[in-house]
Design goal:
Blueprint lengths: L5 E6 L5 H9 L4 E7 L3 H11 L2 E3 L2 H8 L3 E4 L6 H10 L3 E4 L7 H21 L1
Parallel strand pairs: 1-2, 1-4, 2-3, 4-5
Helix pairs in contact: 4-5
Bound molecules: nicotinamide-adenine-dinucleotide.
The site of nicotinamide-adenine-dinucleotide has 19 residues, from loops.
Length: 124
């Protein structure tokens, strides 16, 4: 893959996922290389149209695909847990709205993003 391309993964392959895929495909600096869903058949179907690799484990996808960023497209009740793991792995995160199920969960996600940014600044 050419230098400077952002390697993207999609977490959640439901109703909104094709819109994210379309947007990334219009951006020559981004490439969707992995898609993940707890429902294997949904991941497989989206992977086919994306030309990406399907996963049922997002941490495995992050590691194997050396992701730079993910779109988080699961139901809001799962956003906090997934976001904390993604950010701890040093990967940029775009989360669908609503950000989280409760304000406290949203605040925890924002805090996890700040911690990730602090680590990134220390290492750059
Ligand atoms: N569909 C829309 O038009 C729309 C618009 C605005 C915002 N959103 C937001 O986008 C997000 C997704 O919405 P949707 O309509 O695509 O939902 P959806 O129910 O169609 O799809 C969600 C997908 O996530 C998968 N999933 C559930 N829990 C998971 C987990 N823990 N790990 C991995 N995969 C998991 C499900 O199997 C499913 O395929 C939500 O936050 C929603 O509020 C959707």
């Amino acid at each position: 893959m050419p230098e400077g391309i952002v390697r993207v993964g999609l977490i959640g392959c439901g109703g909104i996922a094709p819109a994210h895929l379309d947007a990334y495909q219009l951006n020559e600096k981004a490439r969707v290389v992995g898609v993940m869903d707890v429902d294997e058949s949904r991941a497989a179907a989206l992977a086919k149209s994306a030309g990406a690799t399907p996963y049922t484990d997002y941490l495995q996808m992050i590691e194997k695909e050396r992701l730079d960023a993910v779109s988080l497209l699961t139901p809001p009740s799962s956003h906090r847990e997934i976001a904390e793991h993604v950010l701890a792995a040093g990967v940029h995160l775009f989360a669908e709205k609503p950000l989280a199920w409760t304000a406290a969960e949203g605040q925890a996600m924002a805090e996890a993003a700040r911690r990730a940014e602090t680590r990134r600044c220390r290492h750059s």
